[in-house]
Amino acid sequence: MTNAYTMPLPIGFQHMSLAGGIRAAAQRNPNKVVYKCGQTLRTYREFVERMDRISSGLSSGLGLKPGTHGAIVSQNCIEYIEILVGASQAGVALATVNPRLTPNEIVAVCDDAGAQVVFADADCAEALKDSRFATATTIIVIGDDLDSWLQKATGIIQLPVINEWDTLVIPYTSGTTGKPKGVLVPHRSRVITLFSCAVEYGCYSPDDRFLAIAPMCHGAGMLFALAPAFFGGYCEIMSKFEPEAVLRAYASEQITGFFGVPTHFKVMMGQEKAILDAGRNNVLRAVISNAAAMPQALKEVLVDYFGEGLLHETYGSTEASVVSNLRPADQLRKQQCVGQPFPYTQVKLLNTDGEECAPEEVGELFTLSPCLFNGYWQRDEATAEAFRDGWVTVGDMAKKDDEGHLYIVDRKKDMVISGGYNIFPREIEEWLFKHPDIADIAVVGVPDEKWGESLRAFVVGKEGASVDAKSVAEFCDGQLSGFKIPKDIVMIDSLPRNANGKVLKTELRKND
User: Fold this and answer.
1) Which helix (H) or strand (E) holds 41?
2) Closest among 277, 231, 274, 273 to 256, alpha carbons compared
3) Which pTM does this prediction carry?
4) Which residue ranges form the domains of the chain, and what is each CATH number?
5) What is the pLDDT of residues 105-118, one digit of tens each?
6) Distance of alpha carbon 5 from alpha carbon 349, whole angstroms
């Protein structure tokens, strides 16, 4: 039977694609500026022209077929989005590589993904100049090299038919629990998530102005930077995070929405009062936090600064996309909560017997939605572990209250079993974050001959402060059970974190 999915497509059109959404927005308002980064501006017309040339350069120029993999390793820039979307039109899925990795680590990710072409910013290209890739035969440097390559490419071509379940992009997991894995994210996942975000956050209309400060190599940073263009809005991209510059742009650009991780917000709120006072506007509609748990004390500071009715705390994963959101009205009412399931998303919690948990019972969180990933690249065993009857888990432990709100207790792999007790470090970290001399903290389990495991706290002290086991015990007295109080305190200059702001506890456990 002939239908819309079997008929030949017009040149430049693909079903369920990011490029299709941006092309439609460009048709509505081609001369509108869609992106700004530093002094560089890009109109919708210019963006689509470059996007199409990238597609042509990959398919006609380099001869890459749909299903081929490439990679991009770069700081945030307009070209990052153009390359990502242009490659997706050609059916080339890019591994998004953290530019903060070492050259050897970057090569390892590119080789693992089977990347045949690598796009790199100037700094990364310089660092990689002596590296040898197993599969990549072409390295394109973002800047003059990219522009020269685009000039040789033709404009729009007949695009391949892209299935909504085909791989759009391959973010690599952060490695918080071991070796990074390539996450096969389909077109369908990101397009449906974008529409859900527009409904949930209310800051993605053609009239909205978004500020993109999170690394685009991270799934959420990429998603929130793409959304404004998809819906016909405007986005200012920050190539690197500078808190004063962010606050200045937020005010001067009349930003209506922005996304950050708790680390961003903590540093921003630590600026001088004059800088904070200058960094205000009266058009803001949404402030979105994701990627790591936000301490309640920081949340209260943000609500006080930005005002009530604006802050969203979102929970999700690269594998499951956005899972839940705590809306502004509940930010102070529901402490340490990540809200209720996102549109089109179902959540269930299973105990160790495989039964659904009762309210307040802790269990492993499973998600079912049209936004799930396709699996891990060349990791069949890990893929099988993540899926159960169509539902996906990344090993997070959670509970629900009697109103159906979710609370992430901790990662399953971070749970500590000491003397037969199950201990979730996140609860301890949440309380100790309020300690007057503690600037940052992470608690892990370490081997213990007597108890099996014991707690070790890695503490970043505030300037001039020192923290010992005695002061920790005194601060926890009456607030935490005795078996939850860390006796082993290690002072550290800073916690190891990935680009998303998540603490790398695997690195801390090695610190014996």
Assistant:
1) strand 40-43
2) 231
3) 0.84
4) 44-162 (3.40.50.980), 189-413 (3.40.50.12780), 415-509 (3.30.300.30)
5) 899 999 999 999 99
6) 37
